[in-house]
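Notebook B, p. 112. Complex prediction, attempt 2.
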Amino acid sequence: MSDRIFGVFGILLAIGFAVAALAIEESFLSDAVGPKAFPLIIAAILGLSSAVIAFRPDVEPVWPPLGRLAEIAAAVVVMVLYAQMLPVAGFVIATFFAAAYLAWRLGSGPVESVLVGLGTSVGIYVIFHLILGLSLARGPFGF
Amino acid sequence: MELFASLGDGFAIALTWQNILLALLGCFLGTIMGALPGLGPSNGVAILIPLAFTMGLGATPSLILLTSVYYGAMYGGRISSILLNIPGDEPAMMTCLDGYPMAKKGFAGEALSLSGIASFVGAFLATWGLILLAPQLVKIALLFGPAEYFALFALAFMTLGGVSSTNQAKSAFAAALGLGLATIGVDTQTGVPRFTFGEVHLYDGLDFLVAIVGLFALSEVFIFLETRHGGSDAEGHKLKIGKLYPPMSMIKACTPTMLRTSVLGFIAGVLPGAGASLGSFISYSMEKRLVDKDGTFGTGDPRGVAAPEAGNNAAAGGALVPMLALGVPGSGTTAVLLAVLLALNITPGPLLFTQNPDVVWGLIAALFIANFMLLAMNIPMVGLFTRVLMVPSRILMPIVAMVSFVGIYGISGSSFDLLVMIGFGVMGWVLRKLDVPLVPIILGTLLGNSMENNLRRAVTIDNGNWWTLVDSPLSIALWAIALVGFVLPLIVGARVKARMHARRDTEGAISD
């Protein structure tokens, strides 16, 4: 069933891609092939292979139970928040929270999570910023 | 001889303090990444590219660092195969068969050092193979026009699934997806924006580094979260190594095996659609057929440890040949190495050898140096690397995730790229669940633009005649190989894959 849904999704993606390709505005100065041809070929391959996937599905993959899916969704939310907060809170603080969260969800105890968060953010800051001179996000405190 | 003069120049470039230090660092990090289950060579290199890039290393130093990581990961994969019966990366799968039984019999140290020597022999011979074969391939490649290049790219995509691929539709889907992603951005020939939906961030196209790190490294983090596999694989195992040096007689007994499998592995690495996993599989199977007269393979025969290790390291070297000479990688990790070159604005392919000989020969010399370093690291210091196996993934994975973020943020300093990377991470996780290969996606995003440019150039030169694509014997031959490579797995793919896994299952079960 997963493969059938995936295949149908692929076909829709291919159609969408083809429609978007047809909508590309041609420049008045164009080569013999133009900017549309290659995307259209790709859309055709995408659609064909999706159709094959939908008609000849593989064995059903093992999907995790709902709780685990929620776990992954929560991690995605935390990462998105991390990306947004990085310029606001600064590298060290944002990274501390993100790393500690991931460590906690992977099964660390509270103390260990805090230590992992602290170690990761300060460690990266020292190695990559202070020693190697990489520019990291600056927060209100300059780190 | 010209060859040795070039090689000498290469050593002059590679033997600076900075480059030696980078090679040492790369070998060390690579071995660790190879040893840790879940962090294979492609992951390892992928995480480090943005860092090498943002640290402002030049082309040759970055390549030296990252190919050392690549070779190191190939060495490191065997450690957990032998000690824990868990392959550190895919090519090390076959090493479990005899390595783990040897360790159970109390010969862990011997198995580790013997496989280290076998890795060295394989990689060393393959580097020579690279020197001898790549310039020949360059001569052929110089005959290529745009039509032939287009056919060559098609060949790379159609054979990438490999002989053991079971679902070619999914490989084709992945390749098309990657190529489609590459078309996002302003069209290089006419300057019109494509698929940007008015989003200014997309005008430059998607940065392939963002895609690579998201697909490989972040999706790995999600896999760990899904299974909640937070412990270390070494828990509950006694990691006793014992004697570190194998007796001379054992090395002598394995020498013919190592030499034969090095050659075989190298060929498997050069050919499209084979790669290191198949290299070690073929090597093991051939040796079993040739020398296993008493049926000792699978019960801890040293030759069964030497064969797959020499094979997979030789294949790793062999895979560099098409990547450097043609600019078309044949395996996942070499695709990631291609990304390094492209990120540094170096176009691999035949012109690389004439325009940037310093890069090519510096790299080759560095490979030799890295090999000796790895041999030194992997025999006396192997105990250090076995400790790494004790690090639980609940500590390791947050570090991996954060280093990925730092690398990508370092390139552009924009949160938008981080969001795109998270998107790729989720996509990578879903696609892995659905058994869709990720390497064709990467290769598609890398090669998409030059594939399209070659197509358009070829057709434009011939005034819009599309038949020009199959107009020369060379391009017809390339298309023929591509078709065979695509169709063959449909017939034999399931059988080869079943045999690769069956062998591990049955023989693993017997020895346990």
